[in-house]
# Entry
Amino acid sequence: MRKMQADGRLRRLWQLSWPAIAEQLLVTMVSYVDTAMVGVLGAAGTAAVSVNAAPLWLGNGLLTGVGVGYSVQLSNAVSAGNDKRARAILRQGVLAVAVVGLAVLLIYQALAGVLPRWLGAEADVLPQAVAYLRLYTLASPFTAASFIFSAMLRCMGNTRTPLYFNAAANGLNVLMNFLMIYPTRTVSLFGYHLLVPGAGLGAAGAAAASAISLMVAGSAMLAAGIRQGPRFRIHLRECLRPQRDIIRQAVYLGLPSAVERATINLGQIATTAMVASLGTVALAANQIATTAEGLCYLPAYGISYAGVALVGQSVGAGSRKEACAYGTMAAKLGFLFTTGTVAVLFLVAPFLTGLFNSDGQVSLLAAQMLRIVVFSEPFFALSIVCAATLRGALDVRFPMVVSLASMWGVRIVLALIMVYGLQLGLAGVWLAMDIDLIVRGLLCALRWRSGRWAHICGLDGPASN
# Structure
């Protein structure tokens, strides 16, 4: 009987996980294509993208927090059969997209001229970096729609719609890259010479292509979120009135997640500034290694989306047993998937990084960094999955505290010592990251195993099962 229950849970977890894993794989592949296409232009083009990565991750982290605030509430309402509240949460999600998306757009546009300079972009990189940030962030309201409503759809058990829309948008992004990064050129194909038009915008062209694809994905995700059949269909004209109890709960659930992501991303901004001080080659290699690293943890992110949905639904249904089973199973699955991935990645690291840049020195340094970090990735997977399941159980503060303490008390301190004290260069930054990820993963896993989250979400009483 127990085996049948476990098999049923695993089947349901996998049904929700595989579309999210496939979606993450597509996003990573497009990131690879972007990096490789810009990398053809040399180290300066790659560095222009790299110097903006951390500020963009910061904005995305804030949007992720907003998504958590509404999606966890939505999973609780759906599992409790409260369709009226579910529709109200969806309406407030639309309002959040409008307010937060516009605010992020205005902040990025105001700071685009100075952020790359603050982060240490060199003179040959700065103009491309500024143009990249301005163009990419024009899509901020649509990015907000994509982040918030993809999270809400997943927590309702619909992981396929985000996969389909993001797949289409990613394909569009690749096509637009060909047209916007390179100048008009002649291409030989099967003995025929074809004239391929191009805007020749370099790194700025990659940003414009990404902005267009984000607009398409965000619009489609918003449309899917408000038109989900008779149970959850809402109308835009109903979405403009704030509902205080939902917003208050969204702030309670989402603010710690946003602070957690902001803590991590601000730490990444600090390390980017350290890396920039090491020169353009180090900055370009850091970007390539960071992009390639995405292959390690993408299964964990896909599984975490399923984990937070199933734990949140179990909490809404009042079942501690199901919440505990799904959270533990998700953590184990994420750890095992990531372990298998990093074993392969260690072997192919030089080949993989060589695809991203025409500068041999850059690709060799990136491969070395990738081999340094793979040993910590299974623990990073634990932190990703366990932090998500803790949020699904309303234990939102612990992951925030762990991220704050580990990023600034471990990674930044050790990176400063290793880079400037021990003179280890870029390797010092990545060794410090290794230790940070291991600490974070162990602490989040121990928190889930302790069961303290059950008290926070009200599942430690006799009414829970």
